Amino acid sequence: MGLRPLRIRDAVAWREVRLRNADWLRPWEPTNPEAPLFRTGLGPYLAMTNTLRREARHGSALPWVVTYEGRFAGQLTVGTIVWGSARAGQVGYWVDEALAGRGITPTALALAVDYCFFVVGLHRIEANIRPENVASRRVVEKLGFREEGIRRRHLHINGAWRDHLCYAVTVEDAPEGLMARWRRAAGSPVANAPDWAVSPEVASGGVPYRAVPRSAKVTHPPEVPRPMWTGDG
Ligand SMILES: CC(C)(COP(=O)(O)OP(=O)(O)OC[C@H]1O[C@@H](n2cnc3c(N)ncnc32)[C@H](O)[C@@H]1OP(=O)(O)O)[C@@H](O)C(=O)NCCC(=O)NCCS
Fold it and tell me: Does the Cβ of 101 fall within 6 Å of ligand 1?
């Protein structure tokens, strides 16, 4: 599996997977209270992609496509990134139902968190999950995120403001990185596949996945995400 930046040319694959997965995603997908979630045109994709790419250019989001066997499999976005004294972001993700249960999302999340901690220089990643979403809670629990409490009416989902459990991990919780921990613990075929380290294109724009030595100076705001969004169409 891999992580790579969201591209305009993913539009057709994105729409096909999303329409096929509408019932799968509806109970969990954040919604704009004023706009429908699933539409057949490419407008929603272009609007989402333009927004995310603009946020990425400003260092406030890292929006990735999750790929499996080279194909579009889902999305993982670290958004709401704040700098200053917080250096924190919130993660959201989904995967095609046809590919569920293979460890794809925890592998993608472990890669993403390691990238955020050791390349971008974030300190804390949060995942806010509806208490009813057992599958998503398993993803973060398997990676060792800490459950920190409930956020009342945190996000608008499927027609109402929903409570969410807040899970988080900080860099001190995983000094060796989440991927190393996940590979040791998982026995997951995806986590242990030989290709993840070479194919994830986490940074893309020619920047391979790599951990920066902990002594390395991290720039602020981050320089790393920027190459992801140049020359991409
Ligand atoms: C949550 C989600 C991203 C998990 O992705 P995944 O790649 O299937 O993750 P995993 O393979 O680690 O499976 C996680 C859990 O899903 C459940 N699961 C396993 N196989 C499954 C299947 N075929 N169908 C549905 N759920 C399954 C299990 O509870 C599993 O936990 P376990 O490993 O302890 O048994 C995915 O279920 C999804 O996209 N759901 C809809 C959108 C969503 O909920 N997004 C998150 C919002 S917070």
Answer: yes
Whether 94 lines ligand 1, by a CB cut-off of 6 Å, is yes
pLDDT, tens only, 175-221:
888 988 888 876 555 665 544 433 334 433 333 333 333 344 444 33
Domain ranges of the chain: 2-207
- 7 CA to centre of ligand 1 in angstroms: 25
List, for residues 90-101, the tens digit of each pLDDT value.
999 999 999 999
Protein residue whose Cα sits closest to atom 42 of ligand 1: 94
Rg (CA), the chain: 17
User: CA 109, CA 168: separation in Å to the nearest integer?
Assistant: 12
CATH of 2-207, one of 1.10.1410.10, 3.20.20.370, 3.40.50.1000, 3.40.630.30: 3.40.630.30
Residue 80, strand partner residues: none
